[in-house]
Specification:
Number of domains of chain A: 2
Helix content of chain A: over 70%
Strand content of chain B: 35-45%
Radius of gyration of chain A: 18 Å
CATH superfamily of the largest domain in chain A: Homeodomain-like
Order of helices and strands of chain B: EHEEEHEHEEE
Distance between the termini of chain B: 26 Å
CATH topology of the largest domain in chain B: 2,3-Dihydroxybiphenyl 1,2-Dioxygenase, domain 1
Distance between the termini of chain A: 41 Å
Shape of chain A: elongated
Number of helices of chain A: 9
Strand order of the largest sheet of chain B: 1-4-3-2
Largest sheet of chain B: 4 strands, mixed
Structural class of chain B: alpha/beta
CATH architecture of the largest domain in chain A: Orthogonal Bundle
Number of domains of chain B: 2
Oligomer: heterodimer
Number of strands of chain B: 8
CATH topology of the largest domain in chain A: Arc Repressor Mutant, subunit A
Order of helices and strands of chain A: HHHHHHHHH
Largest interface: A-B, 18 and 19 residues
Structural class of chain A: mainly alpha
CATH class of the largest domain in chain A: Mainly Alpha
Number of helices of chain B: 3
């Protein structure tokens, strides 16, 4: 992990992370992020990973996938539109990254989460949204279920 | 005296800076500001909420050793502290005013499930959601 990071540096790294969160569909080359944090490009990539556990590019991809999952669940937009809206330049890259992160194809994810949302019925929507928030855990469990092979009947 | 939560504290990196932010920009007022040596007990209060104080504390002695204090400063600065929620009557109006005052917004106002919410951070890194509730939430 290296040494302890300076809180002033961390605050500036957080600003770059916040900016990605707010506009994850935009392009975020390291140069752009580094300038928000007032550090060199090499320093930025290393410091970001140390602070937040993932490299900046990987972080951006997971945020885009999270947004795509929400749009798959909450809208009727075609998958192509969702891919472009969330920042991908090609449907192929979107599908591949989506599968890497979630273990599912976008279309499968849409069908499954909608079927699940149907079961939730009278639960208030704010609770539903909170329940969907731990995306990482969901996808890990999903992967385990796939490995066990009992997802076929869903 | 009524029962209930009286003070919840935040860790901030600098109490003068936090005071300028919470009082000067968000419109809270000072409830208590007392010192004992280098220790400063500072709480602020929302004008509409006289039974609740928000504490603005610096992690450090005598509560924390130097190493733990440094860890807490890092946690605050990387936005790892728990979420905070501020209820407002008019999220978009408040957003416009606070943006003008130089508040660092992380999310513009968005309509969600009948509510309007926006996000901002205090200078230390504490993250706030500013929510205009639809009236039938909770």
């Amino acid at each position: 992990m290296g040494g302890r990071q300076d809180p002033e540096l961390l605050r500036r790294l957080l600003r770059a992370k916040d900016r990605m969160d707010a506009a994850s569909h935009e392009d975020w080359p390291v140069r752009r992020l580094a300038s928000i944090s007032f550090v060199s490009e090499a320093h930025f990539a290393r410091s970001f990973k140390q602070a937040f556990g993932v490299p900046p590019h990987r972080y951006l991809l997971t945020r885009r996938i999270e947004r795509a999952k929400a749009l798959l669940r909450d809208t009727d937009w075609p998958i192509t539109d969702i891919a472009f809206q969330t920042g991908w330049k090609s449907l192929g890259t979107f599908g591949r990254t989506f599968r890497d992160v979630t273990g599912e194809q976008p279309g499968e994810n849409r069908q499954r989460t909608r079927a699940a949302a149907h079961d939730l019925g009278p639960v208030p929507s704010c609770i539903v949204s909170a329940a969907h928030r731990p995306d990482l855990i969901t996808s890990v469990l999903e992967k385990q279920r796939r490995i066990r092979g009992d997802i076929k009947n869903s | 005296m009524r029962q209930g939560v009286g003070v919840v504290g935040l860790y901030v990196r600098d109490q003068d800076e936090a005071l300028a932010f919470y009082v000067g920009k968000l419109g809270f007022r000072v409830h208590t500001d007392v010192r004992n040596g280098s220790y400063r007990w500072l709480t602020v209060q929302h004008p509409d909420q006289p039974s609740f104080q928000l504490g603005l504390f610096v992690p450090g002695p005598p509560m924390l050793d130097a190493d733990t204090a440094q860890t807490m400063r890092a946690m605050v600065a990387k936005g790892a502290m728990p979420p905070l929620v501020w209820h407002v009557d008019d999220c978009r109006g408040a957003y416009a005013g606070l943006l003008e005052a130089g508040v660092e917004f992380t999310q513009e106002p968005v309509d969600r499930y009948g509510n309007v919410d926006a996000g901002f951070r205090d200078p230390s890194g504490n993250g706030w959601k500013m929510i205009q509730a639809s009236g039938r939430s909770h």
